[in-house]
Amino acid sequence: MDIKLREGRPEDARACGAIAYEAFKSVAEEHNFPPDFPDSENAVMVLSFLLASPSFHKVVAELDGRVVGSNFLDERNPIAGIGPITVDRADNRRPCGPEPRDRAAPDAGGDGTHGGAQLSRRATRTGGVS
To answer: Could you give the C-alpha distances from 19 to 29, 77, 88, 112, in angstroms and in order?
Structure first.
């Protein structure tokens, strides 16, 4: 069961949006914060925008043919923004290594188009921080 990383496509929006909604909702509830997205459909709309935009580098992670996570790189500014990074809660404890991050990060500064990258994060599941 290897993680497969590929470029994100607009047709991934429903799966990526549902994962993002559940991931951010669980963190918000755990810390008694308001949710980032009021419902799954709003998360799907945001992820649809990111997946369709040429200004974002998109990486989708698949496990056994199903989408289990995503990562984005906002390339609109000299300092690129990384995020949102999401992982399906059912697969949250599986090691998927640094590949999703590394797959987006080379585009942030490695080719001279960006002065660096900044992680865009509002909340995190500390169990996933290494």
So the answer is: 15, 27, 5, 33
Domains (ranges, CATH) in the chain? Answer: 3-128 (3.40.630.30)
pLDDT tens for residues 43-94? Answer: 999 999 999 999 999 999 999 899 999 999 999 999 889 989 988 877 655 5
Number of H helices, E strands in the chain: 3, 6
pTM of the complete model: 0.74
φ, ψ for residue 28, nearest 5 deg: -60, -45
44 backbone dihedrals φ, ψ, rounded to 5° = -60, -40
Longest dimension (CA), the chain: 41
Element (H, E) at 57: strand 56-63
Query: What sections of the chain are H helices per DSSP?
Result: 13-30, 40-52, 99-104
